[in-house]
């Protein structure tokens, strides 16, 4: 799948693994934990979540999806799951 997002630098080479999808004005932003700058902006939460997912897959990180009020509503891990999990 080809992304419609422009990445101004090599975001996949960074080492931080927690990625947050947060509201940003009338849009949604993808921000790596600990960074002040936004990595990607998107018009919808779904588009921002997909961009964050692609970054997390490359970094083997975790995506935290926030509600418009800032609360975390969901989180997904990509690559850091334990080998054997029960349940």
Could you give the topology of this structure?
Layout: E1 18-24, E2 27-32, E3 40-42, H1 45-59, E4 62-66, E5 72-77
Parallel strand pairs: 1-4
Antiparallel strand pairs: 1-2, 2-3, 4-5
Q: How many beta-strand elements?
A: 5
Estimated radius of gyration: 13 Å
Oligomeric form = single chain
Helix content: 10-25%
Question: What's the N-to-C terminus distance?
Answer: 31 Å
Could you walk me through the main structural features you see in this protein, from its secondary elements to its overall organization?
The chain is of the alpha+beta class and 87 residues long. Helices cover 17% and strands 31% of the residues. The chain is built from 1 helix and 5 strands, in the order E-E-E-H-E-E. It has one helix spanning 45-59, and strands at residues 18-24, 27-32, 40-42, 62-66, 72-77. It has a 5-stranded mixed beta sheet with strand order 3-2-1-4-5, with helices on one face. The longest helix has 15 residues, at 45-59. The chain starts with 17 loop residues before the first strand and ends in a 10-residue tail after the last strand. The mean pLDDT is 83.
